[in-house]
Every structure is written in C-alpha cells, then in structure tokens.
Design brief:
The chain is an alpha+beta fold. Helices cover 26% and strands 31% of the residues.
Length: 224
C-alpha cells in the first residue's frame, strides 16, 4: 500500500517538474531574437547617427529600444542615401544579421511643434521569418501647417511585425454559353433527381429481384 502511494507521489512530482520545464522553454523560445536592426537618423546632422535598435522576436513581435545619450553614437557612411534634412526626416535601419539597409523618410514638417513625436515601424516578414520590407510613419500631416520645426523632439516608438500569408484563391467565372438561334444566354439545365438519373439501373435490378423471388415458391407447389 505504501509503495503504491509512493509511486503516485513520484509520478505527480515528475509531471509537475516536466510542466515547469516545458513552460520555461516555451517562454524562452517566444522571446528569442531572430534579428536586430540598428536605427539611425539625420535629425541634427548630415550623417546618420544611431538612436536605437529594433529587436525582432520569434513570436512575431518587435521591441524598440533607444540608446542613452551617454552612449557613443555610431556613425554610418551613407551620404548617397541622405535626403535634404531641411525637407525630410530620414531614418535608416541596418540588419545586424544580413547587413541589409532600409531607408525610410517622412516630410520634416510632420515633426513641427511636437515635443513627443509618435512613430511606427512595420516590419514585413516572409513565411521563413526574414524581413523583406519596412514601412515607416512619424508625426502628423497637420503639423505641416504650423511652420515651426522642433529641434530635438522625443520619439515615442512602436514596432510591429506582419507575416506574409497566402491570399485567397480567386474563383474564376465560367464563360457564358450563348444560344446561336436566339442570341441569348443559355439557361443551365435543371438538376435531375436520383430516380431520373439512375432509373435504367434501378428498373432491371427491381425486375431481377421480383422474378428471382417467385421461382422457389413455384418449385415448392410442384412438389406438393
């Protein structure tokens, strides 16, 4: 009796430990980083200065993290990709895994008069999890009517991940059948019922059953 109770307790403890380990592994897997993008911008200079990074996670989410002012800004030689800083605010993303770069820009006036500028990064992924396009939006279009430019606004950043999915398969329409004699579209024939479709199978089968059932009775009467 004691051995059965001990085995039951052991099985319960083993199941509890395995569930805890499985949940820990699942949580760790969900937060693994698939790629990290360094974020640069040219708000105050003619060179791209790093201001943060975006971590893309396996659970199809992304996190933006800004670097502190104490950190040494990382400069990138991308003079050919810089737009006129007086008219455009330009952001550049560089992948740490592949080195791929994405240049994003909005009109500089969208940041006008804003102490906190809301911005959104949308990273589009393939089914395999690699980023193939990045969309960007910052500020408000109505700010272009103000005229004054904010010197160093604070950015409130949001990063989203969108996984590419297979779209619905289109249903192709059947070409209309035209009656040559009337020039009008032929109407589809009405669907036939079960008996109308298979009567030529059912009639012979019914005759065989009827005739085959009468013969044994006739033989019995003859013997009497």
């Amino acid at each position: 009796m004691r051995s059965v109770r001990a085995i039951t307790i052991l099985v319960f403890l083993s199941t509890l430990v395995l569930s805890v380990i499985a949940s820990g592994l699942a949580e760790q897997t969900a937060t693994l980083t698939t790629d990290t993008f360094d974020v640069f911008h040219n708000l105050e200079s003619k060179e791209f200065v790093q201001r943060g990074e975006i971590r893309v996670l396996q659970n199809e989410t992304a996190l933006y993290q800004s670097i502190s002012a104490k950190d040494t800004p990382e400069l990138l030689d991308a003079s050919e990709q810089i737009l006129n800083a007086d008219h455009y605010y330009t952001v550049l993303l560089r992948s740490k895994n592949s080195g791929a770069q994405y240049v994003l820009a909005v009109k500089r006036c969208r940041l006008s008069g804003e102490k906190k500028v809301e911005e959104t990064f949308v990273l589009h992924e393939t089914k395999g999890g690699s980023v193939f396009r990045v969309d960007y939006d910052a500020g408000k279009g109505s700010n272009c009517l103000k005229g004054s430019l904010a010197d160093v606004p604070t950015f409130v950043s949001k990063a989203l991940v969108k996984r590419r999915v297979q779209g619905p398969t289109p249903q192709l329409a059947v070409a209309a059948s035209i009656d040559a004699s009337t020039g009008k579209e032929k109407q589809p024939e009405p669907q036939k019922g079960f008996l109308a479709k298979y009567w030529y199978y059912l009639v012979p089968l019914a005759l065989l059953l009827l005739l085959g059932g009468e013969e044994p009775q006739q033989e019995g009467n003859a013997r009497r």
